[in-house]
Automatic annotation (TrEMBL):
SUPFAM superfamilies for the chain: NAD(P)-binding Rossmann-fold domains (SSF51735)
InterPro entries per the UniProt record, alphabetical: Epimerase_deHydtase, NAD(P)-bd_dom_sf
Organism (species): Meinhardsimonia xiamenensis
Domain NAD-dependent epimerase/dehydratase: 35-152
Pfam families membership: Epimerase
Organism lineage string: Bacteria, Pseudomonadati, Pseudomonadota, Alphaproteobacteria, Rhodobacterales
Protein name as it appears in the record: Nucleoside-diphosphate-sugar epimerase
Amino acid sequence: MDNRIADITDAGQMYDVMSSYAGFDELEPGTGVPRFDAVVHFAAIPRILMTADNECYRTNVLGTYNVIDAALKMGVRKIVFASSETTYGICFADGEVKPDDLPIDEDHPTVPMDSYAMSKVCNEATAGSFQRPSGADIYGLRINIVFEPHEYQDNFSAYICMENYRLGDFFACIDARDLAAAVEACLRTDGLGYQIFNVSNDDHSVNLTTSEILERFYQGMPVKRALGERETLHANDRLKRMTGWRPRHSLRDCLDDPARA
């Protein structure tokens, strides 16, 4: 498959991409343009402070509308799109904001305070609005901060000690390989309609236990259930239960193998 470069904010380009060949090999049978089985939409301005705020919002909201609209009209029945942990209004907040309760699951209120989080909340509403009349499967992933394997080697020793810096992400993260596996699990799982899933690894990204995190940063906050001593506060139970996905990687691997830290 070849890379196609297109502007997601241009509806015409999205219709062209969804109705075009994906690579030169598809020309060989002489049977016309194949149809896509699924679309994974991760294209976006990925955070605040990269562009003007209104441009971040415009690109992400209009882009997601165009991608889903074009995909459905071209017969695609499975769409997986990137939402964000920022929708809960804690990451990128002006000042320290605490969640209503812990662990933070998909039923927690979405209360964004910035253009990026606003765009992701809007994208979730857009996806749900497209799903209802179409009956297609459209799944949104509220992705925590992503780590690639090389970053363990390069950055882990300093990163795991930055407890205060991790507060906005609930001390959670997701390994890029586990994120890819989450997408694959969503693509394999049919019939769920419209769903939103938190995506995070099973454990914390800092060198603290759950009880230490609760005592230091969330004292007196409601905790909805018993938590394991390394259990993530960005609850990933729904994705596991509904798709069979299981994360297999952890930043803590570096603690177990000091040569990697």
